[in-house]
Structure to design on (620 residues):
């Protein structure tokens, strides 16, 4: 993919014209500055590769946080016609239903400023993190795991983690129907059993944040977000269970790709017709993993709440912790969208991209019908995060999708090099951020310099009219895996 | 052993390019490099041994299956590999004797989570003189 073939459509929109085996053009949301960064890796080529997949409708889309992934770019969205299109495990990713949830509280910055170390330490010990972390709750047997796979966040609530009101504020009410635990390997069950309620490692985190700015007072008030208050972000997914399911089904779909004669430019784009038995099996397995992730974030929320109640010696009413929204950013969903005047039943792959449904969508809870779906865009651990809402324009242009985070700009090795000789803990502490991490490499690899400017990413989508900014958060305490 | 490893600058994940004079050397070096991304090999005592046998239709896929199998030992049994011996490769099959021990939180620091070996840019090539193996790991 060379720079010359890109067509700049506006200050924040670029097109890769349809050429060669591409079935549709590519469309990238980015400012000129972000596009310069995007050019430095292979993500544009990956957009063009996705555009070659059968049944893709409209465009292969990319959000401003796009960066080089494996197969699909991270920050990519592709809607495939349900009748003629394909589903690709690589288009969802290994961490199926990796996602973010935002919890609001009554706590104020001033009331916890001196206790932030205690709070981070308490959460760090209460929510297991790090590689292969386990032991948050009693180890589940196979029957329990099966129930988690079928019931999602509801399983967590039935087992004492949170309240049933929470389900209103989770994408798809925390449960993807038609999950199929029967097509999941024993290895996946084994990996999932000890890991429910654990954070994992890498870019996963729990963050205690201050609500720093409000951009839309009305919407913020409806979401329970107040300037100067404390909110909590959780970023994690389906843990080893999801990784194993993705791994298993790339093998299945590699065979299906050959069986159905599908030409793919990269083996990681292995796919199967949505209507084929292989495609249906993957959909069922992926939904089951997504349910595990919804349950995981629900359990973690409850573990955090109990830590805060204990450390701060507060009643649940005084703490006022409530789920604002829980979003998936590695997922494929069957949805109905109108695109250029025609209605399509599509399988929307969101790989490092979020759903961003606008006001009036029947998939939103009544409380959010008039404002649109909350869109959570966390930045790196040293800067800021955003709460936005989806718009009607998102429904017309991006199959109701938006950006999911800052997006990496440095490789892990480059980040490590840049961190040499620096005390990142101290740098963050100077900025008022107390960090605890399980893995030694995590802090260096996840350093703020490794990420794009999240404000620029969010502003791009805001200016494009795909999302509307509601509030900005700055971190005070971070638990990294 | 005449082999060496180079880290690739992949934006989101970790990639390795491994060079060696023979296929067994390539597979051994790649396996060790993979484990080194996860743990200090000097901290893993070679006190337990296992036989590994993996099959795949072509050499690229065999390379990936082999590395996945080493990773699976950790994911499924918390077994860390520190030594790889008796590597035999023929007819799309690899067998090897591996040594290591169970993960012990007090003695082993896990450097980072390696989720899976991807198929992106995966390949084993021979230029007439040496073999090159490339793989990217989702982290």
């Amino acid at each position: 993919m060379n720079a010359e073939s890109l067509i700049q459509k506006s200050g924040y929109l670029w097109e890769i014209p349809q050429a060669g085996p591409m079935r549709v053009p590519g469309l990238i949301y980015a400012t000129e500055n972000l596009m310069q960064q995007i050019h430095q890796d292979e993500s544009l080529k990956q957009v063009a590769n996705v555009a070659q997949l059968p049944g893709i409708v409209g465009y292969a889309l990319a959000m401003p946080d796009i960066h080089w992934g494996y197969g699909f770019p991270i920050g990519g969205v592709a809607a495939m016609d349900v009748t003629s299109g394909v589903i690709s495990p690589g288009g969802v990713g290994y961490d199926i239903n990796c996602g973010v949830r935002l919890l609001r509280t009554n706590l104020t910055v001033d009331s916890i400023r001196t206790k932030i170390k205690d709070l981070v330490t308490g959460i760090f010990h209460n929510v297991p993190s790090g590689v292969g972390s386990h032991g948050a709750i009693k180890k589940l047997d196979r029957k329990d795991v099966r129930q988690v796979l079928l019931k999602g966040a509801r399983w967590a609530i039935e087992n004492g983690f949170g309240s049933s009101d929470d389900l209103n504020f989770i994408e798809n009410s925390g449960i993807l129907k038609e999950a199929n635990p029967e097509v999941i390997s024993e290895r996946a069950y084994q990996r999932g059993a000890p890991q429910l309620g654990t954070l994992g490692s890498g870019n996963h985190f729990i963050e205690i944040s201050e609500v720093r700015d409000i951009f839309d007072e009305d919407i913020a008030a409806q979401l329970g977000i107040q300037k100067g208050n404390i909110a909590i972000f959780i970023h994690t997914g389906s843990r080893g269970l999801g990784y194993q399911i993705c791994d298993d089904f790339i093998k299945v779909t590699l065979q299906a790709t050959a069986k159905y004669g599908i030409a793919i430019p990269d083996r990681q784009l292995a796919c199967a017709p949505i209507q084929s038995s292989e495609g249906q099996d993957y959909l069922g397995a992926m939904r089951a993993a997504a349910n595990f992730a919804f349950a995981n974030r629900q359990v973690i929320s409850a573990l955090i709440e109990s830590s805060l109640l204990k450390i701060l010696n507060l009643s649940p009413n005084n703490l006022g912790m409530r789920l604002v929204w829980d979003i998936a950013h590695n997922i494929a969903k069957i949805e109905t969208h109108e695109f250029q005047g025609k209605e399509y039943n599509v399988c929307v792959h969101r790989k490092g991209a979020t759903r961003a449904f606008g006001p009036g969508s029947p998939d939103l809870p009544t409380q959010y019908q008039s404002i649109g779906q909350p869109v959570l865009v966390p930045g790196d651990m040293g800067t800021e995060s955003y709460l936005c809402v989806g718009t009607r324009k998102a429904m017309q242009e991006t199959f109701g999708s938006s950006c999911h985070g800052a997006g990496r700009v440095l490789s892990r090795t480059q980040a490590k090099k840049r961190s040499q000789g620096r005390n990142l803990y101290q740098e963050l502490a100077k900025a008022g951020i107390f960090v605890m991490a399980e893995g030694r490499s995590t802090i260096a690899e996840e350093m703020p310099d490794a990420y794009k400017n999240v404000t620029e990413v969010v502003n791009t989508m805001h200016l494009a009219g795909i999302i509307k900014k509601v509030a900005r958060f700055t971190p005070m305490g971070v638990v990294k895996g | 052993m005449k082999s060496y490893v180079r880290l690739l600058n992949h934006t989101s994940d970790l990639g390795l390019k491994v060079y060696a004079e023979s296929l067994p050397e390539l597979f051994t070096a790649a396996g060790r490099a993979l484990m080194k991304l996860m743990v200090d090999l000097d901290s893993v005592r070679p006190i337990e041994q296992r036989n590994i046998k993996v099959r795949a239709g072509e050499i690229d896929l065999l390379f990936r299956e082999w590395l996945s199998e080493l990773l699976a030992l950790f994911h499924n049994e918390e077994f860390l590999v520190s030594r790889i011996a008796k590597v035999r490769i023929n007819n799309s099959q690899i067998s090897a004797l591996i040594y290591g021990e169970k993960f012990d939180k007090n003695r082993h620091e896990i450097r980072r989570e390696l989720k899976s070996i991807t198929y992106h840019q995966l390949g084993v090539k021979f230029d007439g003189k040496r073999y090159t193996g490339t793989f990217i790991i989702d982290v």
Summary: Strands of chain B lie at 3-8, 14-20, 48-55, 79-90, 93-102, 116-117, 123-126, 131-138. DSSP finds two helices and eight strands in chain B.
